[in-house]
Amino acid sequence: MPRYPEHLTGEGPVNPFPGIKVLERRIGREITHRLGSNEGLDMPHRALREHFGDAVVEHVYGYGDAEALGVRQRVSAQQNIPLEHLLVDAGADSLIALALRTTCEAGETVVSTAGTYPTFGYFAQGQGCRLVEPSYIEAPGVLAPDLEALAAAAHQENAQLVYLANPDNPSGHLHSDSAIFKLRKALPDDCWLLLDEAYGDFRDDAGSEFLGQALPGVIRLRTLSKAHGLAGLRVGYAIAHPDVLAMMMKVRIHYAVSSFTQAAAEVVLDHPDEVREHIEAIKARREQLAAHFIALGADVLPSATNFIGIRLPSAELAAKVHQQLLAEGVLVARLAHPALANVIRITAVQAALEPGRLAALEKAVSA
Ligand SMILES: Cc1ncc(COP(=O)(O)O)c(C=O)c1O
């Protein structure tokens, strides 16, 4: 079994503020007169009402439900995930930080692919962890996290946790479910697998049984930032066994997800057709964008996400294209990691398909 930091294995820490929603559920009745919590409950909010309307303002007075029951119930019903296998927090980024805080102590080693989603390494180092980074597998048409190298590094370095984004950012690569099972098996028993599935909704098999499972020794993360379009509101969820989530709840910032965010997430989750429509539109644009650049001769990386990666012949050329586009007010992503500095990433939004919008990139790949 993966290990927890020593200081979390006893009784505490105990959250001093589980919140009113949790208390209401415990005592089985609504609390109609809130005279004990120190929120600004009688703020008139004239300005806010005028700006955003009454419906929004009703959500801003009190702290959000620390257990985010409404969001969890909807995700649970839609994806067939037991309620007790779900924990909601302020986006996948917060969940990465929370997972690290729950599983790792300063001085311990964590492993992730060199050039993958950099927030993981940033948070891990900020927590005093040692970061070990095996390289991607690179071949024509392939840029993929090297699962064997991740497992080997975990053994060699006595790692506490391995991070894998699947589908991966920035490569867009998707490893199969069986490859993930194999990776879990190949890791040391006492090493965690933090599986970041922020782009899971764009998988062609999204909704498969595997995707909803809590796996032993694995903390899976999802977000409503992408397929659900709620990045600015900060909401995502973890899928793991209840004992793991209980540990995470010990160190979670309990009111991190605001009441308005929860209410908005509930509304969006109550309209799955709109989410599906959005996902289908993104996938269609992604394929159109990929076909366009492939036809120009570009090395387009296969993607199971809402973006495509284009590998240019050199980092210098990628930097030049990036600068040219920026000078025109167009921001594409150029990867910061030196190992991937020749990759440009483009999000499959409508603007990317507007004729001439990415002319500098088109010119570079056809040269
Ligand atoms: C792999 C990966 N994980 C996490 C995130 C952050 O998601 P959130 O907005 O839910 O924090 C991103 C955002 O780009 C991402 O690419």
Could you outline the blueprint of secondary structure elements for this entry?
Blueprint: H1 20-27, H2 46-52, H3 54-57, H4 69-79, E1 86-89, H5 91-103, E2 109-111, H6 118-126, E3 130-132, E4 136-139, E5 142-145, H7 147-156, E6 161-165, H8 177-186, E7 192-196, E8 218-223, E9 236-239, H9 242-251, H10 259-269, H11 272-295, E10 299-301, E11 307-311, H12 315-327, E12 333-334, E13 343-347, H13 359-366
Parallel strand pairs: 2-3, 2-6, 6-7, 7-8
Antiparallel strand pairs: 1-9, 4-5, 8-9, 10-11, 11-13, 12-13
Helix pairs in contact: 4-10, 5-6, 5-9, 7-8, 12-13
This protein binds pyridoxal-5'-phosphate.
Biggest sheet record: 7 strands, mixed
Spatially, the strands of the biggest sheet line up as: 1-9-8-7-6-2-3
How would you state the average pLDDT, rounded? 95
Determine the structural class based on helices, strands and strand pairing.
alpha/beta
Number of strand elements? 13
Q: Approximately how much helix is present in the residues?
A: 25-40%
Number of helices: 13
Distance between the termini: 53 Å
The ordered string of helix (H) and strand (E) elements is HHHHEHEHEEEHEHEEEHHHEEHEEH
Small-molecule binders here are: pyridoxal-5'-phosphate
Q: Uncertain regions: pLDDT < 50 for 5+ in a row?
A: none
Strand % is 5-15%
Tell me the Rg in angstroms: 22 Å
Shape: globular
